[in-house]
Amino acid sequence: MTKQPDKYDDPIYVADPEKEKQAKRLHFMVSIIRLLGIAILMLGIAIALGRLADIPAAVGYVLIILGLAQTWVMPFVMVRTFVKQQVAEEAEKEAADEKIL
Fold first, then answer.
1. Cα–Cα distance between 36 and 27 in angstroms, integer?
2. What is the DSSP string of 8-43?
3. Which member of 39, 44, 49, 91 lies 3.0 to 4.6 Å from 64 by CB, making a disulfide possible if both were Cys?
4. pTM (2 decimals)?
5. Start-to-end Cα distance in the chain
């Protein structure tokens, strides 16, 4: 009868509070960006369908494209930038550790 190790007893993973805060901020920002993108998309659809007075349909189509880009493309760019930054910081940290040894 061996005791199963707890999930948090693993010496490989140690949570860094600063990185956790950064990840939470990123998640919040991505959520806000997506919600604003949906709002821009809905505004563009309303303008393109002529529901708002005296605004050309071309403006609505541009807003639809911007809203879709903000909803689908911007979150990927933000997350990719965040991950690249984290990888670069880890590489610098490992390089600094190798110099010390």
1. 14
2. GG-SS----HHHHHHHHHHHHHHHHHHHHHHHHHHH
3. 44
4. 0.74
5. 41
